[in-house]
């Protein structure tokens, strides 16, 4: 009897005794199984949208000295849009056959996303043992942005890792390494290029040495090895500057799809651009010394604007907003309100809004959800920062920043107004 009790005690699952343990025990199994499902089942199964095939074909052509930029831009199939430096970095994919190469690329992106989430935890001084870890992993791999990145098999997981390494190294003032982390992906695609505004306004000039130097060196090496390097400039770049009316959630793309007049599209872009500029000014003016809040919130504003305002924005780009979402744990976060998370639902949900009963509504909801989500997110941030500024100005405490009064030390209510202060007593 005693031996059986010892045996059962050894295999008995641990029972959570604290709230943190209970949350971890509940969410980690679900998070792990969700990751496995997304990587091994959904991603391997693939989709009609295949971002990997044109990349593999281009890598194979580059590897064998053939022309790379031969895509027919009149079709709606995914096209190869990387510069010669990107072709150089992608070329090793052609060593394996297409199927195994795709599996390897899926695995590399999945690992990159998991490492990026770990770096995001470290950015906020959290560890894997915290309850934030399983919540973050489960939320990320349940989202459209991570799921379709893996299913469509594109490079955005690696871009996310580059973004997180860049922010962490930038905050720790390791400028050359921060530049290197973003420079690698800039050699492939310019998704993170707007984030170079951060070291620019912070005066971290060394970042630009590696951030711009690495793509330049890779381009110098790649051009002689490419059979048609100028075709990228002559054919691909003009296509990148155009706005298409399919698979495009930017204001311009949705405006073209739904037939909005040009003046309305231009007005919407101008209004949101003004909100972005005001938000960035308030962040720089009043929060630039609060490193974590400034970097994560400014990153969110810049990246959201880069999806919504230019010629092309796709829903799975929203992965780059993870630092902004994680900032909700900060006391002065702009994400501590329900409209912000309604916006997050719009640009990250994996829900399908097609409706057989209401087809017109379903079509509009499905095509507009990420556009509305990005738009609402910018509106929320603008309103939160603007309201804080107006309240602080009315209360005469702009010299102490624009954080809500209850977050100030000492609280604003404890500081007597100058008009009511008792006059000094003279002898």
Automatic annotation (TrEMBL):
Keywords: Cell membrane, Glycosyltransferase, Membrane, Transferase, Transmembrane, Transmembrane helix. The chain crosses the membrane at residues 103-120, 126-143, 150-170, 176-200, 207-227, 263-284, 291-309, 371-390. Its EC number is 2.4.-.-. InterPro entries: GT87. The keyword Transmembrane helix applies. It is a multi-pass membrane protein. One of its GO terms (molecular function) is glycosyltransferase activity. It is found in: Cell membrane. It is an enzyme of class 2 (transferase). It comes from the Bacteria. The keyword NADP does not apply. Its main location: membrane. Belongs to the glycosyltransferase 87 family. This is Glycosyltransferase family 87 protein. It comes from Rhodococcus globerulus.
